[in-house]
Write a structure and sequence with these properties.
- The protein has eight helices and nine strands.
- By secondary structure, the protein is an alpha/beta fold.
- The protein has one domain: Rossmann fold.
- The strands form two sheets. The chain has a five-stranded parallel sheet, with helices on both faces.
- It is globular.
C-alpha cells in the first residue's frame, strides 16, 4: 500500500527542510549543533570524493567515497542530488535514507550546497528551503580564513563561489542570519515544528 492509499502514512510523512548557503557560513556547524541538541531531527550524511579534514569521521560527517564509487552511485540513481563543488570534489545526498526518514515522520534535514538545493527543488518542490546567511561579507571572509583548512588558492576560489551563492538568497523560502550558532540552530529547528494549521 502506498502513502496515497494509506491516509495515516501520508499524515506521518514529514516535510524535508533543505539548508544551504555560501561556503564558510557555518552550515556544517549549525547542523552539528542541531544534531547535538535535537536528536529527534534526522540529518542526512552526504557522500563526497574529497579527503577527510582533521577530526571528520566516515559515516558521521560525510561518507568518504572513491571517484569510482561515486560514479556508480550516480549511474544507479542512488543520489537525490549531486554536484562538483568549488571546481574540485563531488558531493551528493544518498536518496534512500532521506525517503526512509520522511516516511517515518521524523523531522528531516539536508545540509547541502546551492547547486544541490536547486536539484532538490526540482525533484522535491514541497520541501522548505532555508538560506543560511553570514552577518556580513567581512565576517564570512574572517570565518573562511580562520578555519585554516584551505590553501590561499582554494580560499580565493571559495570566496568567488561565495559571492555567487549569496546572490541566490531570493531563491529560498526563509533566510536565517548566522550571528550565533546555537541561536541559528534553534531558529532552524523551530521551522521544522508543525504550525497550528498543519495539525
Amino acid at each position: 500500500m502506498t502513502d496515497a492509499q494509506d491516509p495515516s502514512a501520508a499524515a506521518r510523512r514529514s516535510r524535508l527542510v533543505v539548508l544551504a548557503g555560501p561556503t564558510a557560513v557555518g552550515k556544517g556547524t549549525v547542523a552539528a549543533e542541531v544534531r547535538a541538541t535535537h536528536p529527534e531531527v534526522w540529518i542526512s550524511v552526504s557522500a563526497t570524493t574529497r579527503q577527510p579534514r582533521p577530526g571528520e569521521e566516515n559515516g558521521v560527517h560525510y561518507w568518504f567515497v572513491s571517484d569510482d564509487e561515486f560514479d556508480r552511485m550516480v549511474a544507479d540513481g542512488d543520489l537525490l542530488e549531486w554536484a562538483v563543488v568549488h571546481k574540485a570534489a563531488r558531493y551528493g545526498t544518498p536518496r534512500q535514507p532521506v525517503d526512509l526518514a520522511l516516511a517515518s515522520g521524523r523531522p528531516a534535514m539536508l545540509e547541502i550546497d546551492l547547486q544541490g538545493a536547486r536539484q532538490v527543488r526540482r525533484t522535491m518542490p514541497d520541501a522548505l528551503f532555508v538560506f543560511l546567511k553570514p552577518p556580513s561579507w567581512e565576517e564570512l571572509v574572517r570565518r573562511l580564513v580562520g578555519r585554516g583548512t584551505e590553501s590561499a588558492e582554494e580560499r580565493t576560489r571559495r570566496l568567488e563561489t561565495a559571492r555567487e551563492e549569496l546572490a541566490a538568497e531570493t531563491e529560498f523560502d526563509v533566510t536565517i542570519v548566522n550571528h550565533e550558532i546555537h541561536a541559528a540552530a534553534e531558529e532552524l529547528v523551530a521551522l521544522m515544528k508543525p504550525s497550528p494549521t498543519d495539525l
